[in-house]
Each structure stands twice: as C-alpha cells, then as structure tokens.
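Per your request, structure below.
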C-alpha cells in the first residue's frame, strides 16, 4: 500500500526490525530493498555478521515514498465494453484494449466490477455481478470465444478445418445479432457456452492430457473441482439450491466432489467442460493483467462482500455462513428503504478458527489477476446489516455484531410493555388513515382483531389488530396471491393493488424494537423508529427513554466492539496480499471506521454527491490523501444525468462548487481548481506527520455561498444560470477538480470521460446508468456506445485527458513534494 497520507497515525506497536547495515526501508535508496534469508544470509550469498539490530523503524503499515504519489484512472464493468470483436458483451481480451486507452490518456489505473461467475438462475437475474456462485471461478460471459475456437482448431488439426470454419461462421453471425445497445445476457451466455462445449468435445482427450491443463488443475484443484461438480449438479437438478439435492447436499459435499470429479463418473463430461472454460478464462484474464503490467497500468478488481445462498461456497462450507439470515444495508442515500442483497451473513466466530482462511484464499487468488482491490462494503467487516431470511426489503434489520439493548435496560426506564414495542402497531385509526374507505377490507383479509385501545371522540372503540399468521412476514405477505393481478388489468386496479401492498408492508414495519430470535432478553431499535406511528403514539417520557437507547445503540455503545471486529478480520486480508486495498465506505459510516482504515492503510472512497462531512456536496480539494475520489460510481446515475436532473441543485453546484463566473455557456466561466500542496509540520512531541493544506484561491472562495451548500443562489441563478446540459466544458471542470484533489487516486467512470467529447455525449444520459440500488432485480446490461478501437483512435479526446492528468501532477504516478 502507498503511504504519504496526511494525518497518517504512527502505530508504535508495529515495529519492523532490520538486520544489517544499509538504507532503511523508507529511504529513497530502498527502491530495490535487500532481501534477507532465514539463515541471515543475503541475496548475493554473502553472510551478514550483524546479529543485533542496526536500527529499529517504527512502521505505521504504509509504504513511505519521499513525496505524495497520486494516480488516475478510469472505471468500467468488463461486460459494458464494446469492441469490433466482442460478442454480445465485453470480454477479457477487450480489457487489454481498455488498458491501452487508459495508458494513451496518461492514466495508470483501470478499475472493473467483480468478474466472478454468478450463474445461479440461468437467466438474466444472474447479470448481478455481486452475487457470486463461486468466489474463485470466472464468469463465462467474459470469454473471448473466438480465441477458444482458434486454439481448439489448432489442437484438432487440419482434418477438422470444416468443423471449425462452421463454428467461426456461427460466432460471426452471433456477434452481428448481439451487437445491441444493451446486453442480452441470456443469449450471450448461451452462445458462448454452446460454442465452448463443441470446442471441448472436439479436443477433450488432448486437452485433458495436456501439460498446461494438468498444471492449472493441480494449482487450482481446491476450488476448481467443487465448482465444476456444483455446476454439473446445478444443471442436472435444474436448480442451484443445493438444499434440494437430497443426499448430495451440503452434509456430504466433500465426498460428492471427490466421487464426481473422478474420470468416468456419471457427470464427468460436464465437470470437465467447466474445467475447460475456466482454463481459457484464466488464461485470457492473466494475459490482460500481464499486458497492464507491461505498460505500467494498475488493474484494480472488486471483492464482493457476499456470496449467493445457492453457491459453491455455502455448499462446501455451510458452517461459515448464517443461512437463516440475509445481508443488506440500512436506509441511506442509495435507497431510503434500505437494501436486502439476499446473501447469508458470515459466521465470523467459525471463520476465525483457521485465521480467516477462506478470506485469505480469496484475496490471494484475486492477486493472480489484480494489483489493486476494491473491498465492496468494507463497513461489513466492522458490522453487517443482518436481516431475517423472510424479509424482502432492508428496513427490519440490525447490526451484527452489536451490543443489544437488554430487557433490564428497558425495565429500568419503565418500558415494561415490550410486546407493545415489538409487535406491529395496527389500530382501526391507523387502518383508516392509510387505506381510507378500504380499511374494512384490509382488516377482514389480512388482520385478526386482538382487542381495544381507547375510544374515538365520538365514543367508538379503537380496535387493535395483528396480522394473520400467513401474512405476518414479508415473505408471506409479498409472496401471497393477494396482490396478483391479470395482465391487461386496468390502471386503477394496478394502482390500488400496489397502494395496498405498500400500505401493508408499512404496517409490518410499524414497530419500535426488534426481538433477537436467539436471545429472548435482547432487543434492537428499529432503524428510523421515530418516523413510525407506533413511536409517535407513545407518551413523551417513553419517547425520551427510547430515544436515549436508540442513540446509544447506534453510537458509543458499539464503537469498541466494531473497532475490535475490524481489527481482527481486515488484517487477515491485508497480510496475505501485496495489493493496494481500497474500501467502499459509503452509507451509514460509524465514527470508528476512518481511523481503523487509516491505521490499516486501506483507502476510503469519496463520491462528490455523497459527502462524508457536512454539506450538500463533497469538496475534492478537502479530501484526505488516503482516499479514492470520483464524481460518480456504478451505484449512482452518471455525473451527466445527475447534473441535468435538478435545475436548482445544478445552480448551487455550478456556483458553489465549480465556482462558475459569468456566462455559463463559455468554457472560461469555470476557474482552475483549487491548488494544494503537501508539507511536513511539527506536531506533538516532535513527530513529523504529513498534512494536506489548502493553498491559493479556489472555487469555494469565489462562490459567495456557504460551504454547506445551503446558500441562497436564486439571484445568481437568474443572472447567470449554468448550462442546462452537462456540456463538455462543464464535465471538464468536474474532472479537473477531481484530478487536482489530494486523493491518492482519482477514478472516473468511462461514461464521465466520454462526456468530455461532444459527439460521445449525444446518448441520453439516463441510459448510461449501470445499476439502480433500489431494485434488487435490476438488469445489469449497460453497454458503452463507443467502441474501444474508436476511443483509442481519438487522439484529440485522449490528449485532453492527458493534459488534465499532467496539469494535476498525476502523470505516471508522479510524486509531488
């Protein structure tokens, strides 16, 4: 990992002892450090006679450069790439060309989304790249099938020329048919697997006996055999839900793998086919990685936080997962309802028994391809948002691990009515308020009356209800036939049915506390309970008591536990890899997260529209050094779409952040970004620490509005409105601002860089969104509309990017002092 981070704390408990004389590890002469052998001898065979330390270096976990190293790059999902040879979706050979584009633009990083196999359902649902069916296997979607055909033809020999000529013609036909605006996931995977199968059948014996394959199998057997057998059984049973496989389920998975991976087993042909596909995927990705290293570009991968419940890993290692739960995220800027990803949460206690070997194996394997790694939802290593398996949305969760509210704490504050706080609050008044004239219908179809709770002013009793058993969970409610309507039903019926579904779900969430199913005396506050009618109907003293417990639960109570949990788990990943590690730390970030990430040398993430500090917008000139900054990411709309969506926000952003002056249609309206410098300052007892300080006048000083983004820009907006569209000169100002930030890496989605070129920015901005986090069945099918070859040939566009890289001091990972 790279050091030079401002305010980087020095951990004196980490001490590196170096034997023998010579330059220290953090001196300029340490570019080629001496290697010591276990017997004390040096790499050249000369034996060291210095048995006592010549110096002791206090190490803070970071690699120290004499200056602040800063790089830049672009980000794109592999599936989104488009080239002259790609079939239906981008592939690993396209990644080579993307590396060339980045290199030609003066950048030194290419970042991709996860590339693991996600084939669970055998349909477009599998387009979700974060739901791995294997944390090791690569996705067949990324196979450059033409290379497989050519290699098989070479092995088969000229006597099979006609056979492979037919396959090449089939591939060319599919390439033309699938050259669509968006990815047809199912058709693309079907074509590639069909052609791969026939290539394998033609060369099965020589391939399986080849030295190259035998070495690949020996090196990767620990994950490859279980994966291949799992895929064969998934196809045989028609489902990846291994708990439905009878005697071949997880109870005897190791024995099943041993038996079915043997040549001659009843499914060995299918098993060997998956060997064949993974062999070629591995070779193609390793070649792309080797090419990136040759030209000096860092290939940055993505480590998903979860695995699918129906995966190889849960089949082989069920003890490592809590299969009765789901992983998600609490309500945040991505989704006000929270997210439910459907992954099982981890059994950290079980994982710790072998030193988190499963995680270490994942990181080590990914280093086969990548020099840097993004850890998805790094907050999950501190605590994860755990939901019951029956939930469908993300509201009714709690953090795990966490210190719960104990029953005696409730009783000490007079909160004896635990059932009232834990059960959905449903009364005739609430039903009337939500459903209007349909309240009686809702009560009759979905509820059971439980009694009375006071009276209306006219003397009528206020009835209380509970959900009928079959509708008491989200799974039971949303999966029932009650909300099914026929195709072609009138709009009013569709709207009424959807309103009833949302209203009932709202009622299920109308609680103040959640019970712990494993501990009857443990409770957790329902997040945002203050917005529920269950809370607001309480007396003032009850609200005060619950608010105190709520603030304590989500605050100081957890800090020590979460800090210790991350310090146990994250070092297991860090110590087994030489990759630069970056953490996606967006969302509800506990106070303990930034210091732990800094302590471990893990970079944080800064997305401008999701500021970590106060204010409406992030200020790139204020970002810490140990961060990756970006104007947008795959979980947001593109910068162009975001900019154009809201007129008033656009005006605030243009004036307060970009410092727009005068006519917004002129490129000169945006001043240069704020400069920065890195300096050493004396602090405390004389220890030198790096700090970033802001220098010279910049955009904020010119805005005339408060730094919190809440200033009144109405007059300025009327006099000097910003452009309605995110024209190239607007995007240029945004890119320059991020390039000039202190962040160690400035990464730009490909869509944002394409918007620098007028001809590239004609596609409707809303079509360029990769993911909608509010939709857990989103179809990940975005594809770039510009071919990689055309990008590489556009010398003016590349020169503009290169100029911005150079002016910011990020060229070739330049170190500034």
């Amino acid at each position: 990992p790279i050091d030079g981070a401002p305010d980087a704390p020095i951990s004196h408990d980490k001490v590196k002892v170096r034997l023998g004389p010579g330059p220290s590890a953090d001196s300029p002469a340490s570019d080629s450090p001496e290697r010591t052998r276990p017997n004390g001898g040096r790499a050249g065979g000369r034996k060291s006679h210095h048995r006592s330390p010549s110096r002791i270096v206090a190490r803070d976990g970071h690699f120290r450069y004499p200056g602040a190293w800063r790089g830049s790059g672009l980000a794109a999902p592999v599936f989104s790439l488009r080239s002259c040879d790609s079939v239906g979706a981008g592939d690993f050979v396209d990644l080579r060309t993307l590396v060339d584009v980045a290199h030609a633009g003066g950048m030194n990083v290419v970042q991709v989304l996860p590339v693991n196999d996600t084939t669970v359902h055998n349909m477009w649902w599998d387009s979700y790249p974060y739901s791995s069916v294997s944390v090791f296997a690569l996705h067949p979607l990324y196979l450059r099938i033409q290379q497989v055909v050519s290699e098989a033809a070479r092995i088969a020999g000229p006597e099979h020329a006609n056979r492979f000529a037919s396959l090449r013609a089939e591939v060319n036909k599919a390439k033309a048919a699938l050259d669509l605006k968006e990815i047809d996931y199912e058709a693309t995977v079907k074509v590639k697997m069909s052609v791969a199968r026939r290539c394998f059948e033609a060369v099965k014996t020589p391939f399986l006996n080849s030295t190259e394959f035998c070495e690949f199998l020996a090196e990767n057997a620990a994950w490859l055999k279980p994966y291949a057998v799992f895929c064969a059984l998934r196809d045989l049973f028609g489902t990846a839900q291994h708990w439905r496989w009878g005697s071949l389920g997880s109870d005897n998975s190791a024995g099943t793998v041993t038996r079915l991976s043997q040549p001659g087993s009843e499914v060995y042909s299918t098993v060997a086919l998956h060997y064949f596909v993974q062999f070629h995927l591995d070779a193609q990705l390793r070649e792309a990685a080797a090419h990136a290293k040759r030209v000096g570009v860092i290939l940055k991968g993505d480590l998903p936080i979860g695995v699918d419940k129906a995966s190889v890993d849960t089949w082989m290692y069920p003890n490592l997962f809590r299969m009765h739960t789901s992983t998600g995220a609490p309500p945040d800027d991505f989704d006000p309802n929270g997210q439910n990803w459907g992954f099982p949460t981890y059994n950290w206690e079980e994982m710790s028994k072998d030193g988190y070997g499963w995680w270490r194996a994942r990181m080590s394997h990914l280093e086969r391809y990548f020099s840097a790694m993004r850890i998805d939802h790094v907050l999950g290593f501190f605590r994860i948002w755990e939901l019951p398996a029956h939930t469908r949305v993300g509201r009714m969760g709690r953090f795990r691990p966490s210190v719960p509210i104990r029953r005696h704490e409730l009783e000490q504050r007079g909160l004896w009515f635990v059932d009232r706080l834990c059960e959905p609050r449903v009364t005739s008044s609430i039903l009337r308020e939500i459903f209007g004239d349909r309240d009686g219908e809702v009560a009759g179809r979905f509820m059971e009356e439980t009694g009375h709770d006071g009276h209306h002013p006219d003397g009528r009793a206020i009835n209380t209800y509970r959900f009928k058993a079959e509708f008491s969970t989200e799974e039971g409610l949303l999966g029932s036939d009650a909300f099914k309507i026929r195709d072609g039903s009138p709009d009013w019926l569709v709207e009424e049915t959807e309103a009833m579904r949302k209203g009932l779900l709202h009622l299920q969430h109308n609680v103040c506390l959640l019970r712990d199913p494993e501990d009857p005396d443990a409770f957790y506050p329902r997040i945002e309970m203050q917005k529920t009618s269950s809370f607001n109907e309480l007396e003032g003293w009850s609200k005060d008591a619950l608010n105190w417990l709520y603030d304590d639960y989500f605050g100081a109570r957890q800090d020590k536990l979460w800090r210790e949990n991350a310090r146990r788990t994250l070092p297991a990943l860090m110590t087994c890899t030489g990759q630069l590690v970056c953490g996606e730390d967006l969302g509800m970030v506990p106070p303990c997260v930034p210091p732990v990430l800094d302590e471990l040398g893990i970079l944080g993430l800064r997305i401008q529209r999701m500021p970590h500090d106060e204010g409406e917008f992030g200020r790139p000139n204020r970002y810490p050094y140990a961060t990756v900054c970006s104007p947008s990411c795959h979980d947001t709309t593109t910068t162009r779409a975001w900019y154009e969506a809201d007129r008033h926000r656009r005006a605030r952003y243009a004036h307060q952040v970009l410092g727009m002056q005068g006519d917004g249609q002129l490129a000169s309206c945006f001043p240069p970004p704020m400069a920065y410098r890195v300096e050493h300052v004396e602090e405390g007892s004389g220890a030198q620490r790096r700090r970033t300080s802001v220098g010279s006048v910049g955009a904020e000083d010119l805005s005339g509005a408060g730094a919190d983004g809440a200033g009144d820009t109405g007059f300025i907006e009327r006099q000097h409105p910003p452009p309605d569209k995110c024209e190239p000169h607007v995007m240029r100002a945004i890119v320059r601002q991020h390039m000039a930030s202190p962040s160690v890496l400035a990464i730009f989605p490909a869509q944002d860089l394409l918007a620098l070129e007028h001809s590239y920015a004609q596609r409707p901005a809303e079509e360029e969104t990769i993911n909608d986090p509010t939709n857990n069945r989103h179809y990940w099918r975005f594809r770039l509309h510009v071919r990689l070859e055309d990008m590489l040939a556009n010398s003016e566009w590349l020169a503009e990017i290169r100029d911005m890289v150079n002016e910011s001091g990020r060229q070739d990972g330049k170190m500034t002092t």
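The CA atoms of residues 382 and 566 lie 5 Å apart.

Regards,
D.
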